[in-house]
Design brief:
The complex is a heterodimer of chains A (113) and B (108). The N and C termini of chain A lie far apart (33 Å). Helix content of chain A is 0%, strand content 57%. Chain A has 113 residues and is mainly beta. With 108 residues, chain B is an all-beta fold. Chain B is built from no helices and eleven strands. Chain B is globular. Classes of the chains: A mainly beta (113), B mainly beta (108).
Amino acid sequence: ETGVTQTPRHLVMGMTNKKSLKCEQHLGHNAMYWYKQSAKKPLELMFVYSLEERVENNSVPSRFSPECPNSSHLFLHLHTLQPEDSALYLCASSQEVKDQPQHFGDGTRLSIL
Amino acid sequence: EDQVTQSPEALRLQEGESSSLNCSYTVSGLRGLFWYRQDPGKGPEFLFTLYSAGEEKEKERLKATLTKKESFLHITAPKPEDSATYLCAVQVGYALNFGKGTSLLVTP
């Protein structure tokens, strides 16, 4: 398997549920990113990790909690989400944090009931 | 404030009808301008990186150019399979700042 893989592809959850999004990259990259893509809005950067260390947190609410156990895996833990959190969540990776381009997965489509 | 603006928001072309998409940017110290293609239900797919004014990159029917204030994505003799949303982004620190994209529809 190659590239950036995200699971699940679709997720529907209630506001009180806890769920996790998973991202795995098979490119040998050292940097990983979470982005949020909402309708009619540009992609918004949420978190940046370099070699499992978080280097940027873009004023994201605490109901989103990232985890990077190793340079190939990235998780986004979700709890007590709001309806406005419904969006496409995209994971990306690059060789190093300031190295481009970033390569994206196909995202998890999240719907909050 | 660093900003990326894409126009038009949507574009409909007949197959074979060439056109250009625009990306204007305001960023201090450009470190790279990127073009991506995004198909429905998919993540953005990298197309080009441009670093300095005057630079050009080509791939099949696509050609990207860069000036000090804007970039153009020229599409020559498009085909229906070129239908997608085209995203422009500039590198700011660790992140890419994206525009809202241009949705391109090419009809047979």
